[in-house]
Amino acid sequence: MNPYSSPVSRIGVLGMGTYLPSGTRTNQDVAAAAGVTPEWIAQRTGVHTRHVADPDQAASDLAAAAVRAAVAAAGIDIDQLDVLIAATSTPDELGPSTACRVQALTGARHAVALDVSAACAGWLFAARVAHDWLRGHGGARYAAVVGVEAYSKFLDPTDRGTAVLFADGAAAAVLGPVPDGAGFTDFRLGSDGTGAHHVLIPAGGSRVPASPATLGDHRHHIHMDGRAVRDFIVEIFPRLVRESLAANDLRLQDIDAFITHQPNPVLLRSLGERIGIPPGRLVIVGDEVGNIGAASAPYALAGAAARGLLPRGGRILLAVFGAGVTWGSALLTWTGAPTIRIAPTRVPHAGASLAASPASAPPLQRSSS
User: Fold this and answer.
1) pLDDT per residue as tens digits for the range 108-138
2) Would you call 206 helix, strand, or coil by DSSP?
């Protein structure tokens, strides 16, 4: 039996929220330490600026701001959340889950909180967990799914392969029941652990615990085999699009927007042209924010909604890929969910408060497609 043809309510996006920290690094700021020029960065990556968390901000602080915004956009109260899932590769600590930190910060007292770790594909993996949870648990209605990264805490500024790309940010969606014919269908997720060594933070876990030696060897920074990662993206992105379209008897022209992970805007544009994606339908935001990992795809989705690129009833193809290696796709029929973007400014952090009041939250910018 096809689970997506079940009489249980369809699950879709009810509201979205994003948060970018106030600090920024331009190409001029990162070029010298990385041994390149600003022009080289722009030509090779397409990234122009990156947002950077404050020293006292952790992933949970960014995520909490995005979740608050998504809940406000959805028009529900925070204590109506039944599930809160955080997707991140840069957790506050190895334990507890970052989602538990977000729960405390937001006051989502009734939510079951857990993390999903699937690198840059994590938000879609988490959305699948939330989708199935809501469809399979009687009485559960609303889930918050947030992708967040604080990559700046793990970067070697002299490594041009990572320092020019990775940045910080968060994007969240509230999922819940939507009318028949709308919402998510056809999730397709995959992984291949034989490629786990291509992108990783080598030390700090149970295999290589932190020590003076690991600190001295910079093994707590992100290490990436850029060539292997590029080869993986060049193979997997077209395959995800091709397989999703074929399985659903669709053509490229039938998709109103293609939402993807944002590893490198130059590479994405090149692949979009190679695939034949119609002009203007491949949403690219990495030039504005860099690679924000698990937050990239939901940030692109929220940005497209805020700019009016997603028509009500429009068909969206999500395609994500990340370390692990991991990948996934899904179809989403849009319901016109509003988006709230938090203007970059300082937000309350876990070290200062476990339950920030509405009065202390930063200003909101509301958009609706």
Assistant:
1) 999 999 999 999 999 999 999 999 999 987 7
2) coil
Q: Taking a C-beta distance cutoff of 8 angstroms, is the pair 259, 283 a contact?
A: yes
137 catalytic? Reply is no
291 in catalytic set: yes
Q: Any idea of the CA torsion for 227, 325, 207, 88, to the nearest 10 degrees?
A: 110
Q: Of 27, 223, 291, 349, which residue is the catalytic one?
A: 291
Q: Is 151 helix (H, G, I), strand (E, B) or coil?
A: helix
Element (H, E) at 185: strand 183-191
- Joined together, the tokens standing for residue 317 give 């193809």
Backbone angles phi, psi at 210, to 5 degrees: -60, 140
- Give the CB-side neighbour count of residue 284, counting CA atoms within 13 A: 19
What is the pTM (predicted TM-score) of this model?
0.91
pLDDT tens per residue, range 44-58 = 999 999 999 999 999
Q: Which of 120, 131, 221, 264 is catalytic?
A: 120
Q: In the structure encoding, which two tokens stand for residue 70, read together?
A: 């998504």
User: What DSSP line would sit under 262-285, residue for residue?
Assistant: -S-HHHHHHHHHHHTPPTT-EE--
Rg (CA), the chain: 19
Q: Please confirm, yes or no, whether 261 is among the known catalytic residues.
A: yes
- For residues 84 and 144, is the Cβ–Cβ distance under 8 A? yes
Closest C-alpha among 317, 303, 85 to residue 184: 317
